[in-house]
Amino acid sequence: MTAGLPKLAVHKFASCDGCQLSLLDCEDALLDVVGAIQIANFPEASREVLDGPYDLTLIEGAVSAPGDIERLQEIRAESKFLVSIGACATAGGIQALRNTRDVDEFTRYVYASPEYIDTLDKATAVADHVKVDLELRGCPISKHQLIETVIAFLNGRAPIIPTYSVCMECKRNGNTCVMVAHGVGCLGPVTQAGCGAICPSFHRGCYGCFGPMESPNTAALGERWLELGIDREVIRDQYHFFNSWADAFREAGEAYAASE
């Protein structure tokens, strides 16, 4: 029986669908959630679409097409609680790499008939256009954080999502710091936890998939990278990657671009 259960809707904008798939990847935990919530609009999982309003709405993807803003406003109007999920929805994602370049030039290179392409000059976050009740970061998001968010919603409490850095996860995992031991550039000190420190666990630097942590000292980290002999252009490119349009990372990248 699903009558009377809270309605869940999942919407996609410019993205790869990876964060939506994280929901399906929850497996047994998802089955428990399904018993407490009605999946009313989720094209990745079902062809059935039930009319709103919806109690909980998840939005994946960046705002990048002319019709996106109007559609986003309509979704906001029919959603009681709205969560943007993933780097694309919370910081423009990979698409935001175009924000400082000539989009028309890109389309001429990529498409045989660029005159048919209708796109915005910038790819932006959902929160730049409508009120968002919660942002879940990551490329892709953590399925554990997603389940925690849904459970918290169902129980009327705030979700417990870490805002500290990936370095904390490295400490818990017993990882040796890759910057200290190997001189590898790592964004872990300024990146929000959530991935379990996957890359540092394999002796690679963090790429910043979860965006800026609560108090990122990007200037100090950049200076440390310079001491390690890492080029300014590399530092700029690392900040301008998965979460390039997040304020702290965008400003840090621009600082190194300006100093070249």
Q: Give the number of helices.
A: 12
Number of separate strands: 5
Which descriptor suits the 3D outline? globular
CATH fold naming of the largest domain: Rossmann fold
The name of the CATH architecture of the largest domain is 3-Layer(aba) Sandwich
Radius of gyration, in angstroms, nearest whole number: 20 Å
> What is the rounded distance between the termini?
62 Å
Q: Share of helix among residues?
A: 25-40%
Order of helices and strands: EHHEEHEHHEHHHHHHH
Within the largest sheet, what's the order of strands? 2-1-3-4-5
The CATH class of the largest domain, by name, is Alpha Beta
Helix/strand/pairing category = alpha/beta
Mean pLDDT: 92
Sheet of most strands: 5 strands, parallel
Stretches where pLDDT is under 50 for at least 5 consecutive residues are: none
Beta-strand proportion:
5-15%
What would you give as the CATH superfamily of the largest domain? NADH:ubiquinone oxidoreductase-like, 20kDa subunit
